[in-house]
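Submission checklist for the structure archive. All mandatory fields must be present; incomplete records are returned to the submitter.

[x] Identifier: cysteine desulfurase
[x] Organism: freshwater metagenome
[x] Residue count: 398
[x] Sequence attached
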Amino acid sequence: MAFLDHAATTPIRPESLVALTVAYEHTGNASSLHAAGRQARKTVEEARESVAASLGCGPSEVIFTSGGTESDNLAVKGLYWARRAEARGRVRVLCSAVEHHAVLDPVAWLGSHEEAVVEHIPVDRLGRIDVDALAHMIALDPDSVALVSVMMANNEVGTVQPIAEVVRLAHAHGIPVHSDGVQAVGSLDVDFRLSGLDALTVSSHKVGGPHGAGALVVGRGVSIEPLLHGGAQERLRSGTLDSPGIAGFAAALAAAVDGHAEAAHRLTSLRNELVAGVLELVPDVVVSGDPDSAGRLPGHAHFSFPGCEGDALLMLLDARGIECSTGSACTAGIPEPSHVLLAMGVDPELARGSLRFSLGHTSTPHDVRTVLNELTPVVERARRAGRPRIRPVSDAVR
């Protein structure tokens, strides 16, 4: 089997599995005062210090959550509510058109339920935001902007965003900036303090930790309203802490961050070999994302195959032991073109034939060779099958 869907989830790292197993040997609620509770609290606080060291922030800035989606919701809604509480006129939410749905959907919810005015920052053909457009959007009425949210790197095409420029433009008017760093952390050099961000989303299973854990880093002095109410275990986030999951998350993050430079070099080489091979085998394939390795995540390779359905390609590859992703949504059973590709100006028909291969810490040259050995017959079969077409009424009644 060749697993090339690390952007969706990545196999658990040995370091994480060890930490997880050790933590599961102890029973205790981190909020309890007895010995077992104190042991669980010790596990959580040691993990908090480790996560802070990995991300370049203070331990008090780390809020543990159930993962990236919860962190994004807490950041987007929490910042919006806090900013509106300070000034009712702060209703505009600016986010990029290529955000993950964990950002797009809560932003849309704010628009339909909380009087937010949602504005999407356009991107270029590489999937990178138009900084000049953002500057213009802010300048129209800076005092009405509640927050800006731009991901560090795109989950589909891998394009890295100019976060420093986003922060500079927003902070010039006192506007907080959130960034979804789920794909970037562990692949790029991420330092929260140096970035100037006000909030950063991180996910455990994307760096080789267990599912169901993550964090939102919130800068000191940043006002944010809680999403969940209850025991206030994490101040801004209520709920019994998953001590073993948090321990496994911290261990995986440390391993990913410590080895990210070497991993990036190795994965870039494998990715470039894959891209070159696919271009040779399928000359009319379209490669999406920044062609410059410095502007793209090291393990991402995104292709659109003319005349093919992405789902058909995916299933044909899956039958041959190759696991990847289409990166597209499915609404009511009908495949829809990726919103990311559409925002980049890709033709909808071409976008429907897209595949994302994403490499990670377990990827090998053999995985790449497996894809290249199987790809040609898969594309040929998908093209022969063609796309289902509705016959004209005149034909149907003959």
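[x] Structure attached
Curator remark: Residues 154 and 160 are 7 Å apart (CA to CA). Residues 260-281 form the longest helix (22 residues).
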